[in-house]
Amino acid sequence: QVQLVESGGVLVQPGGSLRLSCAASGFTLRTYGMFWVRQAPGKGLEWISSISAESETTHHADAVKGRFAISRDNADNTLLLQMNRLQSEDTAVYYCARGGNTHLDYWGQGTQVTVSS
Q1: Cβ(75)–Cβ(96) below 8 Å
Q2: Number of helices followed by number of strands (H, E) in the chain
Q3: In terms of C-beta density within 10 A (0-12 exposed, 13-18 middle, 19 or more buried), how is residue 44 classed?
């Protein structure tokens, strides 16, 4: 049974850092492309980062490039998102998702990140 469970979302001050985790079970994380997607209050889903299967190739949206970094911990079968220099605009629910053949086929429940002083 495929499961994705995010954690690490908290209230943080502007300029601060956070690391989100997404624990995967039921499949081997490194064999799939994996994604971080967020949804800010009142807005739609926004792709922010992805990592390719079986490689360390990563991509980030312009809004987070240079501040966020996606990675995998293969030993723990966990997807990570390191977020630095957080801004109020980063306030959102953050989801990890697995890349299927044609779409993102499994999603976690999301973790809330709030950036505020």
Answers
A1: no
A2: 0, 11
A3: exposed
80-103 tens-digit pLDDT: 999 999 999 999 999 999 998 889
Tens digit of pLDDT at every position of the chain (117 positions): 999 999 999 999 999 999 999 999 999 999 999 999 999 999 999 999 999 998 889 999 999 999 999 999 999 999 999 999 999 999 999 999 999 888 999 999 999 999 999
At residue 89, the 3 state secondary structure works out as helix
Please tell me the total number of residues recorded for the chain in this structure.
117
| Structure token digits, residue 13 | 């001050």
Which secondary-structure segment (H or E) carries 38?
A: strand 34-39
Q: Look up residue 11 and give its two tokens.
A: 């209230």
**CA neighbor of 40 nearest in space, from 116, 113, 104:** 113
Q: What is the DSSP string of 43-67?
A: S-EEEEEEE-TTS--EEE-TTTTTT
Which DSSP state fits 44? -
Which two structure tokens, joined as six digits, stand for 59? 């991509």
